[in-house]
Amino acid sequence: MGWQQRISLALAERREKQQFRQRRVSQHDDVRTLCVNDRRYLNFSANDYLGLSRDRNVIAAWQQGAERYGVGAGGSGHVTGYGAPHQAFEQQLADWLGYPRALLFISGFAANQAIIAAMLQKNDRIFADRLAHASLLEAASLSPATLRRFAHNQPEALAKLFSPADGGETLVVTEGVFSMDGDSAPLQELHQLTALHNGWLLVDDAHGIGVTGEQGRGSCWQQNVRPELLIVTFGKAFGLSGAAVLCSEETADYLLQFARHLIYSTAMPPAQAFALQTALRAVRQGDDLRARLQKNIRLFREGAAAGGLAILPSSTAIQPLLVGEEQAALRLAERLRERGCWVTAIRPPTVPPGTARLRITLSAAHQEEDIQRLLEALHDANGQ
Q1: The pTM is what?
Q2: Neighbours of 281 (CB within 10 A)
């Protein structure tokens, strides 16, 4: 089999299984809506939970940062790419979340890959929640450590995996808020169990940071847990992009020596780090935004329950509507678009077979009439 035949067969298989992914050019004039092919839709597929991607102060800070520092870092942080905005934001983030150090990464995917690649060795073990993000599971499967997955959000299932290790270390991996189901991990139980067996806990809180906890400090703060490795990202509630790992002083120094994604990648643009400082202030002062988001979540869930919709049990901005069969999820998403609501169908391999769904995401920027229009569209589309 040649390269072209391999590629053609793989694409044909994806199309046959209704799993073929396509990008669409979209224009975002605000957080609530997007425009595709000259038609405007209410946007219920973004992760901009607080609406900060269009915040005037954040935009102005990015512009000011670009004027002052340029639009690119120009090199790795280990060469010339680490500047005053990076240093300032790392310190602000560490102080806010109660850690000695924070290290910036260009994306959450890169942060998860870098940490697992740098930390894990041959005799080590990774125990990961079965529904952990693809970046975590892929990095774990590529590492020399042994990967074992435990039943989703089941500490008792994790407990069964612990046994005397052959001289290696154990890393337990979970999300704070799960990106596809929208539910929260039982972090206290996971952390206590992990500590009991002298392991470390890694929590990816991409969808919790900025939204839950005091001042939006996230899932771990909310549950009074301080994992040894905390990953936070800035492409959701912060409204920008990038990520950071929060850890101890010595762990940060270790990662600076051995995390290849830090050593060999161009650093985050300093203008972005400068804008993130303003976004952090907005998140910390964003109680009104978080209250508005919670109101929208309650409004949607109450309406969904009244309409008999199969919404998964989530109290977060991620509200999955379980459909099951992939083609049915695609048809439902298309019917919603016909009614002016943009909702994305999520299919395997992103989610397990038989659990195709619509992933509805809500924002503080949505208005009550937006939620009502979505509920009416869901009711009409389900009736067809």
Answers
A1: 0.94
A2: 14
